Amino acid sequence: MKGKILFLAGLGVGYVLGTRAGRQRYEQIKAAASNLWNAPIVQKRVDDVQDFVKDKAPEVAEFVADGAKKVVAQVAGRGSSSSSARAATKAPAQAPAKKAPAKSTTAKKSTSGSGS
């Protein structure tokens, strides 16, 4: 059913964009589409779908968040599993030494005016 609706919508859009019938035919199609959209039965269905989405949105958001957490955990587990295993077998001899801040090797350019 979804495929048929998408096909018909694509067919309509293709016709409107590709038509050579002129502005009058375009206005007829636009009016028919507007009448269809504003029909009471269509608007009732739109309201039903909006209510359904409002009811289900928190569940969907939770489901997506849980899935994302699982993916992150799997990716993080793969990337650090070998290094964490090696780190666990070694006894820490000493704390790593802190590096001194790097000195800038770029020379500052003179900003004095050249036109005296």
From TrEMBL:
Stretch list, region Disordered: 77-116
Protein name (record): YtxH domain-containing protein
Highest classification ranks of the organism: Bacteria, Bacillati, Actinomycetota, Actinomycetes, Micrococcales
